């Protein structure tokens, strides 16, 4: 975590150049750790200093953890402290400001909520329960509704409640709530399996309408997370001018939904400035183009950050060796001039107990050598944690250390004795730690095998002759999983450790083949074995779970 005072003079020339640009709208592009959030925050502070009249400013970030962290960092700036009372500054999440505005125009069924994995998981379960009876009505062969459907309008067994829930949330996130818009949609951000015919889309749209009606008549107008932006957009004429903002700043824009960004752009009277990195996108339904957002990119000033400040050269090289097929793979500027550090370590242990023993001993060693160092253990057991179940690693760490969750990230943790953050990848978004341990770096978790298995099951049951759709869906999963690994690696400032155990040493994540073997230390396995396979990495991935 950043603890030193924020200082304009310590910014890079790239950052100063972006902050100094005067064009109305701005897009700040960058990669993990190169100061996008700092640049965006300083951009706001500079405007606070330059505006002579009182201005309303809205700064949006992904969740309440990042809201707290942004406020903490802002208060490190003497300039922010000096000018904060000269303007009306609101640093919050999208749902927080949406809740506030919708309440003022008379909406009911609103809930204060945070966009974290816990909230999303609970809301998805709630939507599943509400949607089930509507789905059954359209799929039960004994129901009158099912009998009235034409043969090609009937849904297959693959169009289950989970599929319909995700489809409806995707429709809302992208604003496809009119039938003609939905039928014409290119389905970007949705998988090719299960296949959806246009005639079946008619049925899905009818299910969507019934689900929305039931929410009003049976569930007291209880709103889904995706409804907030839609309702604001639909009722924009009722929003009074006092609820608009002179300036809107959006951090982590890659995970904002299309409708959220469209609303924020409309709320900005003078300017909207957004910052993001497509490699850090963690929710696949948030796939958008600037044209879809209503932004004409020629009217914007684009600022690109190419240098990394958070991590060491060794961490940056390893993270950026991951290649993506759905976005441009940009080169980091002056990577050889970055701060040197130790090479990341990838460690294999035959037995889980030995892996945990190393983890505990290494953490104790770090604490002994670096008092106050921040440490995170990043796992992929979010389903167990959501159910209140403890993992083996979690239980062992709790016996040795003061284990805390991500909610305590921005709090004063100095009073706590050597705290360790035990978090899932999604919760690590936007945060940074001195040392990161990525556990379960194996083929079961990177990529997550259950995603691959579900995809294979879909295509086996559908007996699809062509592999084109499968290859596209498989590629989407691989890109998504690489993004999550990239996000985990780039949380580290000083070093990152990859751990896995069980089976044999070849059980490591297939993503290891994309790492240059000169960029990491290997323990428990021979990295030379992977060198000749590196050029065949993607082919191996395609065959791995077939």
From TrEMBL:
InterPro entries in UniProt:
DNA_helicase_UvrD-like_C (IPR014017), DNA_helicase_UvrD/REP (IPR000212), P-loop_NTPase (IPR027417), UvrD-like_ATP-bd (IPR014016)
- Positions of the UvrD-like helicase ATP-binding domain: 9-312
What SUPFAM superfamilies does the annotation carry?
P-loop containing nucleoside triphosphate hydrolases
Kindly list the positions annotated as binding ATP. 30-37
Enzyme Commission number, as recorded: 5.6.2.4
Describe the reaction catalysed, as an equation. Answer: ATP + H2O = ADP + phosphate + H(+); Couples ATP hydrolysis with the unwinding of duplex DNA by translocating in the 3'-5' direction
**Where does the signal peptide begin and end?**
none
Alphabetized Gene3D superfamilies for the sequence: P-loop containing nucleotide triphosphate hydrolases (3.40.50.300)
Question: What biological-process GO terms show up in the record?
Answer: recombinational repair
Q: Name one GO molecular function term.
A: 3'-5' DNA helicase activity
Q: Which GO terms describe its cellular component?
A: cytosol
Q: Which UniProt keywords apply?
A: ATP-binding, Helicase, Hydrolase, Isomerase, Nucleotide-binding
Enzyme class label: isomerase
Output the PANTHER family linked to this UniProt entry: UVRD / RECB / PCRA DNA HELICASE FAMILY MEMBER
Query: What is the name listed in the Swiss-Prot or TrEMBL entry for this protein?
Result: DNA 3'-5' helicase
Organism of origin: Sporanaerobacter acetigenes DSM 13106
